[in-house]
Amino acid sequence: MDECLKERYELAAGRVREIQGEELVPSPYRDFFQKEAVFLTKAVMAYEEDRTLLSLEELQEENHSFYEDILPENYGSSYGNPAFASEQAGEYGQVFTFLYKELSGAVCFACEKRLWDLTVLLELFLEIYSSFCTEELPGSDAVKASVCSYIEDYCQEMTEQRVREMLDPSLGFFTDILMNADLEDPRYLYLYGEYITANELETAAFLNSLDQEEIDKMAQTFTEGYRLGFVHAKKDLRKKKTVDIRFRAGFERMVRCAVPKFREMGLEPVVFRRALHAVSVRNQNRNGFTGAAANLQYDYDHRQDRALFLTHDFENRQLRAYQTSYEKYKSLASVYAGPALIETFGESPFTPESTEGTILFSEKQQKLNRDLENGKMQIVNRYIKGEERSFTIISYPLPEIGNHYPEIFRETVRINTLDSAEYEKIQQKIIDALDQSEWVEVKGRDDNETDLLIHLHLLEKPDKQTNFENCTADVNIPVGEVFTSPVLAGTGGILHVKKVYLEGLLFRDLRLVFDCGQVIDYSCANFETEEENRKYIEDNILYHHPRIAMGEFAIGTNTTAYTAARKYGIEGLLPILIAEKTGPHFAVGDTCYSHEEDVPVFNSDGKEIIARDNEISEMRKDDPSLAYFGCHTDITIPYDELGSIRTILDDGEMVSIIENGRFVLPGTEKLNAPLDEAKEELQL
Q1: CA distance 522 to 339
Q2: With contact defined as beta carbons under 8 Å apart, do 604 and 424 qualify?
Q3: Rounded to an integer, what distance in angstroms lies between the CA atom of residue 82 and that of residue 69?
Q4: How far is C-alpha 324 from the geometric centre of its chain's CA atoms?
Q5: Fewer C-beta within 10 Å: the chain N or C terminus?
Q6: Closest CA to 354 of 83, 75, 79, 74
Q7: Given its phi and psi angles, is residue 488 left (phi above 0), alpha (psi -120 to 50 degrees) or beta?
Q8: Taking Cα atoms as reference points, which of 195, 315, 205 lies closest to residue 250?
Q9: Residue 230, H or E segment
Q10: Pairwise CA distance, residues 580 & 436, whole Å
Q11: pLDDT tens column, 437-450
Q12: pLDDT of res. 681
């Protein structure tokens, strides 16, 4: 251990312990510092103790104490709540609520024994505290400047650590728990430092109740999908040595079974935690290993915290840090195969509220943030080449989904293991029909107002080319879609969905109006005012791009998933991974082939998928900064809201693929079987 760092930690930890009883800071600001001192002292205790010796009850009590302040029932009086922080601390409110969020990472760093990260957080707190212990209070700009200096001073170290932990299998904190813990003893769940709820405990218990054959089947589907992603894309997996596994606490038994299967492919597991430092947090999404979110509103309120320090100088500083970090770890980056994700669904729906005092990007910062994320992606793609990497995603329900959790879980396993070969043949019939035309019409029915015209690429060699990828169960599990990147010119109309969840957020009566393939108008019915609704869409679908394109048009074919969702009443809880297979869907943002447009892709019939570009992505040849949006958001119209999907031939004749939510194209009728079987029960 670095003796200098150890000394810094001991001095900081000792000083923090003393603050709890001090009254050096005047009211009302004293309350914030005393509460934070109590919290940080708990983190220090977690760092210094051997937590494996604690009983289950002690670990549960400790875990609750780490997160209780931001639980929904307590959030109204938490400094993590921007509104409360502003009310209590006035001009310092935004800095205090930022500090609260940044310091909250101390718990996870303590449990992971990351001394440097814990120490710099303690020192940041003490610096701000000391500035309030003087006769004259610091100005709010001075306090903000201290935070910005902390960001500037440690941007390189934090960025480098984040890059390394995504690539280096020798950082084994998570894999040690994953592979060596007694999974029958639920105490292991609390060793991560993440918030643990009944979802994680009951998921682990349920997986432990399954026989080994069922676990093997789940792990095989997961790992084989990953392998087939390389095979189908004609990418050489033998060049790679690591796989990045992302999962939620509770799924360890399945992942433990998957690791040897990955190792048979020559891949060592890398597991990294969701981002904690504001330097690395992109939005409210949790990218990496995670436990439960203690309060989704809290995460949402802090999604743009980097606005406190985001300037052109910071953008340049972090891009330099990214470049030097990837250069330092370029050997690890070159053998990184890509992520393998286990997503979850079934939690209670979340509709965010607008909170006063929330730190938000200015218009200038929105552009800076887009440029920063685009620049980071360009650096990543130089070191982790798109033509050499792949991924896979699979999804399972959480116990919170309801009383039928075991049945829904097993139904999800069935959906995830449907016969890909059978679907591939049926989907080829759809592709053959679509390839006869340059135009597709999509309409809703009843009170769904969708009316879209999609322009497809011209096939100059129809015997060797196709517009649509025949998607089987490899990278996107389960099976069930054909997709393309439309031509933007000529693509237009209204996309309307009555209720849809995107990235865990509910949208009611979502309408997007397209012209020349780009969104020109938008609305939803989540909030009372048009201004709030438009901002909600701008924040969470458009990501503040003045124009954003339709990057994908797809037809989902998984009627089995659709009827299962209807049977259990969980349509609104499905993850997009499954929901996109239950009707046509349209993605706004980048194409499906983002940053890999020049890599040839073929269906199993040997035809090359030529629709890998659109007019915006083609700009990468002159200026990559103009070619990518850095997002890809799928929006699905469920079968029961779908009127028709028809191709329009050159002579004006139409060929129907779907009419009134049913597949009518010859050779696809079998897709209606699940609908027919459930018709009486579900009243479809």
Answers
A1: 33
A2: yes
A3: 13
A4: 26
A5: N
A6: 83
A7: alpha
A8: 205
A9: helix 212-232
A10: 24
A11: 999 999 999 999 99
A12: 60
**Which residues of the chain, if any, have pLDDT below 70?**
1, 678-684
Across the beta sheet with 242-246, the strand order is 268-270, 242-246, 336-345, 392-397
- How long a stretch of residues is the chain? 684
Confidence at residue 683, expressed as pLDDT on a 0 to 100 scale: 53
Q: Are 219 and 258 in contact (CB under 8 A)?
A: yes
Q: Please list, in sequence order, all residues whose beta carbon lies within 8 angstroms of the beta carbon of residue 79, skipping any fewer than 6 positions away.
A: 32, 35, 36, 85, 88, 89, 96, 97, 100
**484's tokens:** 């393309």
| HEC secondary structure over 268-283 | EEECCECCCCCCCCCC
- Residue 684 has a pLDDT of 45
Radius of gyration of the chain (CA): 26
What CA–CA distance (Å, rounded) separates 107 from 299? 16
Amino acid occupying residue 139: G
CA 483 to CA 486: how far, in whole Å?
Answer: 9
Query: 292 has which bridge partners?
Result: 195
- Taking a C-beta distance cutoff of 8 angstroms, is the pair 518, 550 a contact? yes
From residue 174, how far is each of 111, 245, 246, 253, 500 by CA, in Å?
A: 11, 10, 11, 13, 34
Contact 344, 409 (CB under 8 A): no
* Whole-number Å distance between alpha carbons of 289 and 247: 5
Structure tokens given for 444: 């809703």
- H/E stretch holding 34: helix 30-48
Residue type for position 281: V
Nearest to 369 by CA among 440, 453, 311: 311
Summarize pLDDT for 179-215 with one digit per residue, the tens.
999 999 999 999 999 999 999 999 999 999 999 999 9
End-to-end Cα spacing for the chain = 65
